Every structure is written in structure tokens, then in C-alpha cells.
Amino acid sequence: MNTIPYTISGDALTVFLQGVPHSMNATHPNYEKVRDMLGTDADEDELVKLVSYREELKAVAAKYGDVSVGLDCILYKEREVNTYLTKSILAIMALGKDIGPWARFMDKLYLNPSKTAVDELFLWLEKANMPITTNGNFLAYKKVRDDFTSFHLNADGTSVDNRIGASPSMPRNEVDDNRDATCSQGLHFCSWHYLPRYKGGQGRVIIVEVNPADVVAITSDFNNSKGRAWTYKVVGEIDQVHTEFAFAGQPLAA
Predict the structure, then answer these.
(1) DSSP 8-state class, residue 64
(2) What is the DSSP code (8-state) at residue 133?
(3) Residues contacting 170, CB < 8 A, separation 6+
(4) Phi, psi (degrees; rounded to nearest 5) at 217
(5) Cα separation of 145 and 202, whole Å?
(6) For residues 96-114, average pLDDT
(7) What is the pLDDT of residue 207?
């Protein structure tokens, strides 16, 4: 019997495969399988698959575009990613919940051409606590005039049409990408808790669906709770009866 060399100490082990040490502990999903195979005439190729997260990933991965989700790691274009978002996805998966919306969000997020916008969207996710749709977009809010036009006019004096079903847009390079310019050019959106800060008792509250690839900036004021995009889709309106706090002209307590 040609057993594979290994060491075990407490709840951790190291197995030497093709001369390379592979260490794992009891938190690894395949720990018990590997431990039980040690000291036997185990198949080395099978052990490689069990101890290597990348090989394990190939065996059990769910693919969402360029995002691959394994048992204990997430890859984007075959490179491991460790961020607030990936930790959230793994936590959701551990609860047995559908990770599809979040994985699709991540896939779209990395299509955003601005690294700055990508980094800022992590701040939005962490602080704004807004829902992710099944197709990987996110929902946000906006106040508009009673006729569904924007409060702020375009440079040419026209208003943006925000009726339900509309998808307003503007050239991306005309949207201010400076997050410290807190009120500037772009199609604005905000979190639920930011609404009282905008235009007091006027207007309507609409729901917009935003592709993370289309976000240009998350502004630095008010705890990363508002942003600017070059386009979004208006998907609904919330009756004022259910948004009384948003028209009081006073911010909610943090």
C-alpha cells in the first residue's frame, strides 16, 4: 500500500500531494472526507479535488456570468474575490437561501467601467441596505414633482420624465463622478432613509431599478445613502400614505 504522507494536529491536517502541502481544518467542507481517506490507498487525484478549493469549485460551482460560487470561496474570472459582497453571498448561501440575485449583481457590478464607482457601491450596499432584484439590479428611491418630472432641470432647461416604465438616460461622461460633489449633474437615486432630506413635503416617491454597471458615483454625504447614475428604470410609486415620514422635511434618527 502506497499511502500519501500527511500530518494531523487536533482539528487540522496537512496532506502532501505531488510534493505540495495542502492544509485544512475542521471548517473546510471536505475535512472529514479527507481525514477518513488518510492512511489508506487513496486516489491522489481525488484528494487534490477535495483539498483544493479551486478544484472543489469546479466540481460544485454555480456560474453566474463570470462569477463562480463554490462552497467556501467566490471567483471572478477565475480569481478569488474577498470583499463585503462576497462575504455576504457566502453567508446567504450558508443559510440555504438563493444567492442568484447577489451573484448576478456582482457579475454586473464588475462590468462598471469605473473602479471608483465599483468601490463606492460597496459602501452603498453596506449602508443603504437596499434590496437586490432577481436579475442582479438594485432598487432605490427618488422624489419627483407631482407630474413625475424631476425637480432639477437639465442644462437645456428640460425636465426628466420619471413616469412608471420610463428609462431616462444621459451621456455617462456628463454625470459627475466626484463623490464629494454631493449635489451635481446626473440621474439621482437615494435610500429609504434619505427621503426626508429631499424637497420637504413636495412631490411623489418613486422606485427606480438601477443596474450596478450604470452607477457613476455614490456621494459622500449622509452615510453613502444617495448616488448618481447615467440611466435607470422607473418601476413603481409609493403612495404618500405609506411614506409620510418622507414628506415631513425632517430626517429620521440614525
Answers:
(1) E
(2) P
(3) 154, 186, 187, 230, 231
(4) -155, 145
(5) 7
(6) 91
(7) 96
More confident residue, 189 or 19: 189
Whole-angstrom distance, CA of residue 223 vs CA of residue 247? 20
If you compute the radius of gyration of the chain from its CA atoms, what whole number of angstroms results? 24
The single residue listed with the C-alpha cell 448616488 is: 227
As a whole number of angstroms, the distance between CA 254 and CA 248 comes to 16
Average pLDDT over residues 145-160: 84
pLDDT of 43 above 60: yes
What does pTM read for this prediction? 0.73
Residue 8: CB atoms within 10 A of its CB come to 12
Note whether 4 and 42 are within 8 A (CB).
Answer: yes
Alpha-carbon dihedral of residues 18, 23, 25, 30, nearest 10 degrees? -30
Termini Cα distance of the chain = 66
